[in-house]
Specification:
Helix content: 25-40%
Number of strands: 20
Largest sheet: 7 strands, mixed
Strand content: 5-15%
Length: 697
């Protein structure tokens, strides 16, 4: 017979064991009796739907602390929904915890920040898990049931994958291949297509430095080449593992933005996008301060951007270009009249699937169209302003004014894209055509006879000097000469017969993203000018994460426009060779020229109207920023206002909408003026300047 000590030892051993869960079938019964879906339970317990399925079919068991929370929930359900003919004690637990509910589980192991909703019911977790103050809630669209955990996750070294709205997933992967397979099978990540004819966005996994090392990747990519060309060598173990598992990498290889895929099976895509933070995947100029944030905060920044713009697939320039295609897919399903079968056909209003060569004057000097044809007829020079008024043209009164104030137009190039008609077909060549402002194209015209006030930059050249003879201009530039009252007689032209407002949905989505993000930072349309200027001074103090999103949206606009004329990269390139960007239907320098031409013309129109309303002339113009002499340090000291106090239309007006102005720090602008007087391009020297408009990233 056992002694008392042996019996107590056996009992103590039982007490020290981990809690026992009911049989898998009973777990499923209790959940169904409570009317809770597997997806919602997974959200409450901060795990994946697949994990819940595994618990309910006996393939795996949860571990602490999730085990304790799961048992507490089952205890409560067992008390409320006992099995027929069975005692509620089937689930062993103290009576004190038998009244737990699903909402209590959500509070027990969740952060206060909102998480991805399951059936529009957000989950939470304790604020103690976050090192930052509670963030302002951002309105989110209803989650797609196919992607319950949002578009992306930031993976840390401990296996925690931080998703949008505070959700945290457990990722067991220890290799890149395991990570890819987990992402596609269990993570519930991805995003729905932006157009009915488009494709769903592939899930994005962002790796911290610790996560990269855990997966067998180097913490940093070292080398003498530029960041964009850095990648792992083909004999690296991680690259070999990917190939051995029958996965593929794109031509970019395994770099900061690695894309791993297999051929699609039917309609199901098998593709995962990786972004490696310690390899400089997030450029500081576009994503200021994001790389140094906590993983959960990085997920919030990228999640807001993905929700409002697009799931990142590379630099903001790449994302800007991808957004164009996502909103205007090149193909759609059409019925073959001969067979009655549904086949892939051209989607009207898009750029199609085949690349299109530009007209010679629209190309770059190294383009095969130019080199192979021996073209010597000149090129379009539609670029943003870089102009400084000559010191000789300054008046004594202007020289005595104590301030120089910079006005920066909000996303001026985005505003120019609104209702912009561009060519959709190949260019046709015409001799001595009659000018038509409604036809997009390139016109050879002599505008040197037009004499304008030298205190303003010429609207026809980027450096603001008067044209010296015939030159190629985009339609908007020639139309503005006509608007000013001058006769234009084109010598020849390259015009497109099929046209459309290709960039309209791109403009609308980015404008909404920009305005909504500013509103979340407290900069709204209902503010008067004084309140607007005050609000614009503190976005980074209000919410650094949303301020970073705002910066990324602006970089997406400029980078996307620049990517339309991406130049060849690499020191081994030879003029006349085709480079990879030319194989994209979105390599369209004529569309880029149209955007910049319209933006520059819009700027000159405002400058001209300011002279008429106030008599003021600018000191300098750099891209979308103009500097005026001022008696005070605020634009309120010189902007035109009516007697009622409302801003006069036609000139510069303050406000958060694209195309309206805000106060710009004039110090960097004066530095730009100094560089220009030295004959240097300030866009190449100013951090965050407009160099992306030259060739993208």
């Amino acid at each position: 017979m056992a002694s008392e000590e042996e019996l107590f030892a056996s009992v103590d051993a039982l007490l020290n064991e981990e809690p026992h869960l009911p049989p898998p079938a009973e777990r499923a019964r209790l959940r169904e009796a409570a009317g809770i879906t597997q997806a919602r339970l997974a959200t409450a317990l901060k795990t994946t739907t697949q994990s819940v399925k595994n618990w309910e079919n006996g393939r795996s068991e949860p571990k602490s602390p999730r085990l304790d929370a799961y048992q507490r929930l089952l205890n409560g359900w067992a008390a409320k929904y006992p099995a027929h003919g069975a005692a509620s004690a089937a689930v062993t637990a103290p009576a004190a915890s038998s009244e737990a509910t699903a909402s209590e589980v959500e509070t027990a192991d969740a952060p206060q920040a909102p998480t991805v909703p399951a059936r529009a019911r957000p989950a939470t977790r304790p604020t103690a898990a976050s090192r930052r103050p509670a963030a302002k809630k951002i309105a989110q669209p209803t989650a797609d049931p196919r992607f319950p955990h949002g578009p992306l996750a930031v993976l840390d070294g401990d296996g925690s994958a931080y998703g949008v709205d505070g959700i945290v997933l457990d990722c067991p992967a220890t290799t890149v291949v395991e990570l890819v397979e987990w992402t596609l099978r269990e993570s519930g990540l991805g995003a729905a297509k932006l157009n009915r004819y488009g494709k769903d966005s592939d899930p994005l996994i962002v790796l911290t430095a610790a996560a990269a090392v855990k997966l067998g990747l180097p913490e940093r990519l070292e080398g003498h080449e530029q960041r964009r060309s850095l990648r792992l060598p083909e004999d690296h173990p991680a690259v070999k593992q990917v190939a051995k598992a029958k996965w593929q990498l794109t031509q970019r290889g395994f770099g900061p933005w690695a894309r791993i895929y297999r051929k699609a099976q039917g309609r199901e895509r098998q593709c995962v996008q990786l972004a490696i933070l310690s390899w400089d995947a997030l450029d500081e100029r576009s994503w200021p301060g994001v790389t140094d944030m906590e993983a959960a905060d990085i997920a919030r920044v990228l999640g807001v951007y993905a929700t409002r713009v697009i799931t990142p697939r590379g630099s903001t320039a790449v994302s800007g270009l991808e957004l164009m295609t996502a909103l205007r897919p090149p193909t759609k399903a059409v019925q073959d009249p001969a067979t009655g079968n549904w086949v892939s056909g051209y989607n009207p209003g898009s750029l199609g699937t085949a690349p299109m060569d530009p007209a010679p004057p629209e190309a770059t000097p190294e383009h095969p169209v130019v080199v192979n044809s021996g073209w010597k007829g000149g090129f379009l020079n539609e670029e943003a302003y870089q102009w400084v008024r000559s010191v000789d043209l300054l008046t004594d009164e202007e020289c005595t004014l104590p301030f120089a104030v910079g006005l920066d137009l909000n996303t001026a190039f985005l505003a120019a894209a609104a209702r912009l008609v561009v060519g959709l077909s190949a260019p046709d060549h015409f001799h001595t055509p009659k000018f038509n402002p409604k036809i997009p194209g390139s016109w050879l015209v002599d505008l040197s006879h037009i004499e304008l006030d030298p205190r303003l930059p010429s609207p026809f050249t980027p450096d603001g000097t008067r044209p010296t003879g015939p030159a190629w201009y985009q339609t908007h530039t020639v139309a503005y000469a006509q608007e000013l009252g001058y006769n234009v007689e084109p010598i020849e032209a390259y015009l497109r017969r099929e046209t459309g407002a290709y960039l309209d949905p791109w403009h609308d989505r980015l404008k909404t993203a920009y305005v909504d993000t500013l509103a979340d930072l407290g900069v709204t349309k209902d503010l008067d000018d004084r309140a607007f200027l005050a609000a614009m001074e503190r976005p980074k103090d209000v919410d650094p994460a949303l301020a970073a999103v705002l910066s990324a949206i602006k970089a997406t606009v400029k980078g996307g426009v620049g990517k339309l004329r991406e130049r060849p990269q690499g020191k081994h390139y030879k003029d006349g060779e085709r480079w990879p960007a030319l194989e994209r239907p979105t390599w369209r320098p004529d569309i880029r020229a149209a955007v910049i031409s319209k933006a520059r013309v819009n700027m000159h129109r405002k400058l001209n109207n300011m002279v008429k309303m106030t008599g003021l002339y600018p000191l300098a113009v750099l891209s979308d920023c103009v500097v005026y002499p001022s008696p005070g340090e605020s634009p309120l000291d010189f902007l035109p206002y009516a007697a009622s106090g409302k801003p006069q239309p036609g000139g510069f007006r303050l406000g958060p909408t694209p195309g309206l102005a805000k106060l710009e720090g004039v110090q960097s602008m004066l530095w730009a003026v100094d560089l220009m007087e030295q004959g240097l391009n300030p866009a190449r020297h100013i951090k965050g300047g407009d160099a992306v408009l030259d060739e993208g990233e």
